[in-house]
Amino acid sequence: MKLSVIGCGYLGAVHAAAMASIGHDVVGIDVDERKIDALSRGEAPFFEPGLQDILTEGIAAGRLRFTTDMSAAQGAIVHFVGVGTPQQKDGYAADLTYVNAAIDALLPYLSPGDVVAGKSTVPVGTAAGLAPRVEAAGATLVWNPEFLREGWAVKDTIDPDRLVVGVPATDAGAAAVDILKQVYAPPVEKGTPFLVTDLATAELVKVAANAFLATKISFINAMAEIAEVVGADVTQLADAIGHDARIGRKFLGAGIGFGGGCLPKDIRAFAARAEELGRGESVAFLRQMDEINLRRRDRAVQLVTDALGGSVFKKNITVLGAAFKPFSDDIRDSPALDVAVRLHGLGAWVTITDPEAIENAKAKHPQLNYVDDRDEALRGADAVLVVTEWDEYRRQMAPEHVSELTAGRIIVDGRNCLDAAAWRNAGWDYYGMGRP
Ligand code: UDX
Asked: Which residue intervals define the domain UDP-glucose/GDP-mannose dehydrogenase C-terminal in the entry (predicted)?
């Protein structure tokens, strides 16, 4: 099927390449010429496992191309809209400028019977506001939220947990469902749940899912705060409650909290939207979730400060990790980088390394000392912080080896990902998050 994908950022670039990989004929469209040039050359503009391969294959097979020319959307049957919905500069609400601009730019190229499938995360009610414009062009607007995780984006797109499509309760809506089932034929045939809802529910599913995930993380981080007072161990607590299938162990990783381009902005936008709808109190807890999460960054800074005798001033601190999570080069709202920047602000000599995110981090925070090689970064450190749980730090870093490189023996495990006993046995002062 002929498809267009408007917006070639994280979501759009992956979606376009993934749709080509399952056999569709796809054009990706974006206003950013540099991005389009890179994608047209088959270069993934960010680190995402598996993306490079499907980009190259799709382009070589002639099923995938990228352009800045919106008229290329003409002739496609489904137009996916995956542009960004960032946090507004002066508030918490989502900025819908790009969504509106993308729809307006697309309208002249729509044909009757086309489906416009919104994928961006939007405040509930957005689709209803956009629908009349799309319908006036004879097309149907549906909402098909995206649940991909960075680092797993290709897998999550080709083989998702579920597909959700919000459609209007009309014949055109029913026809759009049939078309989308054809688009997603491989997962549909495999039995992947395909949920058809109204537009508002589909929009809400996405923000509710992210709010739930953020709440789960913040809940365990709140337990970490309590554990710290009484000398309990939040990782054992998480294991114990996680055995209850109703709770589950996933997303109960206490540490320096969630970051990235989605969870923080999405819960803020959701709270702002609920307030607009006069239901602010229903999700008032999300503000608290945000606060708990942000407090854990303070805690990591406090732990290293206390361990260094009350001040980090002119101390050599090595920060392992800059990305907001492993298998990503994304530094948007990265707790890891935030902790590093704060320590630098307090007068520490901060050296930071990361397997993938150094270039992005350097461009945003040039004041830090960036080192590619982990061992080089560790040399001479008074204290070490692990803030992104890459395997290079979690599994492949023996305490005895690190002892030969550093000046001090202080390690702060901001992700509770190290073997505390192994570090202590090697003579280190180990500090976890919510652990004695
Ligand atoms: C998230 C959602 O998972 C995804 O479904 C949605 O489409 C986009 O937002 P992503 O931002 O890629 O995906 O990252 P995710 O894996 O959810 O992690 C988010 C943050 O939470 C990271 O900073 C991670 O380190 C943190 N986290 C995750 C924890 O602190 N503890 C955990 O137990 C799990």
From this structure: 318-420
